[in-house]
Design brief:
280 residues, 50% strand, Immunoglobulin-like, mainly beta, nine-stranded mixed sheet, globular, four-stranded mixed sheet
């Protein structure tokens, strides 16, 4: 069984932005963006990333048409959004983001102070998926993302002199939807946004390294997962502080046993390194 992974690392930049609050123009911070993984039953998932947009609190036009984002919050859709720009727009195979590898979309760009209300990922139309056991990509329909971009609530205060690293966790299984008997496949991204300054990281090694292994971390509020690389290494970024259960699941064909680790504490700003796990 081949798993699909993807973690969308998203960072935000502002070199010039007009704000309704003059104090927002005093001082600058920097911001980066990273992409990380959630498993699914696909061979490949190709996504065309065109731009990242940001909206600050107070930048909405109150007379604009209202829209509802994926969290159910009403937002004035067409006003106040600013392009952040990304390092390399293009088509990416999200399945390649394994074992702690991430895709950097924005790297230490200047942003203004204030409160970032939302960020928006704009996709192109060159999106496709290769289903398990197939070799030919099938088109992914992304109507909402193409029209206005995919919105994620942030509500993050930005202070001068700090660096902010945003992480976007893209849940593949929940994001790719088979459209009944039509044969169409829709991309309706489900995302979890987090900020490294407010979160921690889990890392470690699972042996034997040549076996594909899924590592998941969960508590009452969060579930995040990744796959090990060819050396058995893994990293899960953007975990809020808390006590987690870690589930280590080898591919079924290996006939190795699943391992569950309880009461693993994650602290803000720290990397929790697990002792090497050897599967039997």
């Amino acid at each position: 069984m081949k798993y699909f992974k993807l973690f969308f690392l998203l960072g935000i930049f502002f070199s010039s932005i007009v704000s309704c609050n003059d104090s927002n123009n005093e001082g600058r911070a920097t911001l980066s963006v990273k992409l990380v993984d959630e498993p699914g039953d696909y061979e490949n998932v190709f996504v065309e990333v065109l731009d990242v947009l940001v909206k600050y609190e107070g930048d909405e036009n109150e007379d604009a048409d209202e829209d509802v984002d994926q969290d159910g919050d009403i937002d004035n859709d067409d006003n106040g959004w600013q392009s952040l720009g990304i390092i390399n727009p293009g088509v990416y195979d999200l399945l390649e983001l394994t074992g702690g590898i991430n895709l950097e979309l924005v790297d230490n760009v200047e942003i203004q102070t204030g409160v970032i209300k939302q960020i928006r990922l704009v996709l192109g139309d060159q999106n496709s998926v290769v289903l398990e056991g197939e070799t030919t990509p099938r088109p992914l329909n992304t109507p909402s993302a193409q029209q206005s971009g995919l919105k994620v609530m942030v509500n993050q205060a930005i202070e001068a002199g700090f660096n902010y690293d945003f992480i976007l966790d893209f849940d593949a299984d929940a994001s790719i939807v088979m459209a009944g008997n039509s044969g169409n496949i829709n991309l309706k991204p489900v995302l979890r946004a987090s900020l490294e300054v407010n979160s921690g990281t889990l890392s470690g090694i699972v042996l034997p390294g040549e076996i594909m292994v899924e590592v998941s971390a969960s508590d009452e509020n969060v579930a995040a997962s990744t796959l090990t690389n060819d050396l058995g290494e893994f990293q899960i970024l953007g975990l809020p502080a808390g006590i987690y259960t870690i589930t280590i699941t080898p591919e079924e064909s290996s006939e190795l046993q699943e391992v569950i680790l309880s009461n693993i504490e994650i602290n803000v700003g720290e990397v929790k390194v697990l002792e090497t796990v050897t599967l039997e």
